[in-house]
Amino acid sequence: MGIPENRTSFILRLPILFAGFLILAIGIVTNLYAALGTNPWGVLHVGLADITPFTLGQITQIVGLVIVITSWFLGFSPGFGTIANMITLGFFIDVVIIWNIIPTQTQIIWQITQLIFSIIILGSGVFLYLRAQLGAGPRDGLMVALATKLHRPISQIRIPMDVFVVVLGFLLGGPLGVGTVVSALTLGYSMQFFLKLGQFHKPSEQLSLLGFYNILKRKN
Fold first, then answer.
1. Total-model pTM
2. Where exactly are the structural domains of the chain?
């Protein structure tokens, strides 16, 4: 499909981008409500939400902003999708929670089932919005940049990054559990599976802010 080069191509990608964000939000809440310990970034976000007056979605946005700024200083240029993710994902998370469409599980068989299902949802959501090629999200942008620079598959980058986030989140009181460990060990592979299934071999090829600006300048 390639990086969009004109306004028409850019606009046609927007539904794919935002559908990916919505699926990600559903996956995040599904993971949290499995009640076995949330995904690695969720441990940090929930821990921060519990000690601040912000909602989980708002914390997601704030952490995303910090990551964007940090990554920018490290040489990773954000794209339109990076900024859109930073703003939209947190909003969708709060909407999914408010609408109460995801059940909180209390029986172990359903907890395990929901946990596995959430990992599949998260992997598909990441693939979908990366496939739009409008810019990787803050967290995944950092992951993709590291994978590109180190010439490693995403799974080998995602796992150590998640472990670091888990430790920090746990120190803040985030919900660490067996689900956290399972998520940390399998999310990278889930993402890699969907990237291969969709035959998307270059997730690092994303529209930069400069590319977005150039599209806006064009007449078509």
1. 0.88
2. 7-217
